[in-house]
Amino acid sequence: MAKNPMQRKAQNSFLLGMLITLLITGLIIAFLILQLTKLTKDQQKAKSLLKQVYVVSQDIESGEPITGDKLTMKTVDGSTIPANALTTADLDDKVNVFDEDGNIIKKVEVISKIKLLQGTVLTSEMIAETGELAADLRKQEYNMFVIPSQLTTGQYVDVRLRLPNGKDYIVVSHKRITIPDYEGTLSTNTVSLNMSEIEILTLSCAIVESYKISGSLLYVNQYIEPGLQTAATATYIPDDDTINLIHRDPNCVEEARQALFRRNNDAANKTAVRNPINNGLNENSENATENAANALKEELQRAQEERQKYLESLGGVY
Predict the structure, then answer these.
(1) Start-end of H helices in 3-120
(2) pLDDT of residue 91
């Protein structure tokens, strides 16, 4: 049966509406697909920019060693941080030296150049390598130095010998201080330093000579910004007996041994350093042995007192 014009018009309108609806729906779907594709690309791009970096988990003073317990890993947007932010791989390359097979053959100490506050993203510009941790490095305690009133653990110092005539020599340089802490009570006269074999022998000689020369002084002075300030050059030269001992000692690192020998073999420099010391020793020769013995006795007494404090801090009865 033939459709009347009104029916045909209604049917055409319906079909046109369906076509328009389908067209609009297609456009919407296409738009959503484009948006989803764009969102996916943006997410992939953002993910590609993510970077795992080291963030300081506690304040680190200038010159203080940077160790794993002071850092935490954090995933951040790489576009918001410096390009030289340190990743795990970056820091591993700084502190470890590998052989051809990827095995660690030695460690390198890393320190902070400046004071780092908690939450700081660590960058390569903030740290410095202080050299290989030598096999002959040992922790040594000393209780005969004159210590600055505000010296605290973590600061860097030079140990110096001052003679009665005003001559002043650097014995060992750029040493990080640790002050013994007994349950919150800091030692008033004892410090510990990480020392190489040559430094131990050299400082031992300086200690004995300071005991023998009345009016001499062994003291420490602090670096202002140890992370940025390089180590001072040692100027003290030990006596010939110590030099010979260092020459024979198989534990001494050869590079340090040669540096000391070069200083000792510079005749003008050796004369300038040793003559005032030898003159002081000669002037005090009559009482030198007694002075050294008395000073050593006091040193041992202080060491025993410090040991007793430590044992008592452990909570035992001794």
Answers:
(1) 5-49, 88-95
(2) 79
